[in-house]
Structure formats: structure tokens, C-alpha cells
Amino acid sequence: MGSKVKSLSLLILPLAFSLCFSSLSSKPADPTPAPWPHQFHSIIFMNNNGSLQVVDLWYDWTNGRNFNIIQNQLGKLLYDLEWDNGTSYIYTLDSNKECRVLHFPVGVLRPNWLEGATYLGQQEVDGFLCNVWQKVDFIWYYEDVITKRPVYWVFYTGMTAHVMTFEVGAVLEDPKWQAPAYCFKESEKKENTVFKSVVSHGLSREGLMTGSFNVSMLY
Ligand SMILES: *[C@@H]1O[C@H](CO)[C@@H](O)[C@H](O)[C@H]1NC(C)=O
Ligand SMILES: *[C@@H]1O[C@H](CO)[C@@H](O)[C@H](O)[C@H]1NC(C)=O
Ligand SMILES: *[C@@H]1O[C@H](CO)[C@@H](O)[C@H](O)[C@H]1NC(C)=O
To answer: Hey, what's the signal peptide range on this chain (predicted)?
Structure first.
């Protein structure tokens, strides 16, 4: 009995102290980034050192899948379809019938992937007043102070992303999530160029986000 009371007070005392101190300090707690909605559609404008891309992003955590449809400026239209089991299909739908199948040690980016990011304060970007966070020296993330929508992010490489649309709850129809037949031929081995430009867009795999996974290892 006595030991139970003692262990309880061991728990409660530090708690009481920390509550006491936090109520004494006038500074409010740092804001935290809004978790991503479990399903959304977003059009993102990317700039990688002058190479421009428009990414049609269909984030679908509910169904364990994520789709980046990437238009390179006056160039290839690439499909980067990711499943939560770690398999990605990266392909074109033109006559070249290119496809790469990749296996990642991590699944689709979690809705709370920004948890644990360091708050850096407020800054205006693209004309929106934003809260800014940094995560593991990998990404700087800007979220609208009022609407809590993502506005912009920048990777440590200098690659930037501007969020043009953000439709919460939008879901791409099931038939569109089917990789083409030529992705399932084991003999297909395509050169790395397709793949390289896909990986360069960055915001897809959680490993890329957390820095546990080095993109250049794939080249
Ligand atoms: C960025 O582009 C410029 C001009 O094309 C090039 O000289 C430079 O090496 C590039 N920088 C990186 C980090 O790729
Ligand atoms: C992962 O799921 C996709 C879609 O269902 C499937 O095509 C692929 O073969 C799966 N990968 C593994 C390693 O099971
Ligand atoms: C990734 O790997 C490359 C080549 O091994 C290395 O030069 C680079 O510093 C690594 N980047 C990070 C962020 O670890």
C-alpha cells in the first residue's frame, strides 16, 4: 500500500512541478503542424534548381496508397503510384511503356509525419502568413496560420514546393490506381532516367522525409 502511494507521488510530483512552471511562464506553447487529412487532392508546383514540375498529388491514407502524377515542364508525364506495403510503380503511359517497380522499407507517409518538428516562428511566404517548422534538417514546412493548410515547403537540397490547391476529402477513383500491365513483366528493366526525375520530387516516401533514407543511394 505504502509503496503504491510512494510511486504515485513520484509520478505526480514532477507533473505538478511542470504544470506549475508552465502556468507561470507567459509564453504560450509552440503551435504544432496540423496532421494531414487522411484523404486529399493537391496540385503542387515544384522547382528543383530551375527544373519545373507540376505534381498532381492524391494522398489516400485510408486506402494505404499515394499517387504523384508528375508533369515535367515540356517533358515526361510520370506516374508514381505508391502502396503502403512499400511497393512503388513508376511509369509512363506513352508508347515507350516505361515502368520501374521499387520496394521501399517504409510505406505511405503517415498523416502525422510532421510530429516532432521544431517550430521556427512565423513568416510570410507566397503572400500567406505561415507558421514554420523544420524537421530533421530535411524539410522546412510552411502552414497558413489561419486556415492551417500547407502553403509551401523546401527541402535541404533547395527544392521548393508551392501548394496550389488543397481539396480535403477528394479521392481518385479505384480504376485509376491500376499500374499498367507492363509493370508486371519481370523482364522489363528500364534505364534510370525516368526514375531519377521521379525521386527528385522528394515528398513521397516517409523515409525521404525522416532522412532515414538517402535518395542518392538509389541513383
Ligand atoms: C543548378 O543549375 C545551374 C544552372 O543550370 C547549375 O550550374 C548548377 O550546378 C545547379 N545546381 C545544382 C545543385 O544542381
Ligand atoms: C503491394 O500492393 C500492391 C497493390 O495491391 C501489389 O501490386 C504489390 O505486389 C504488393 N507488394 C508486395 C511486396 O506485396
Ligand atoms: C547521401 O549519399 C551521398 C552519396 O553516398 C552522400 O554524398 C550524401 O552526403 C548523402 N546525403 C545525406 C543527406 O546523407
So the answer is: 1-22
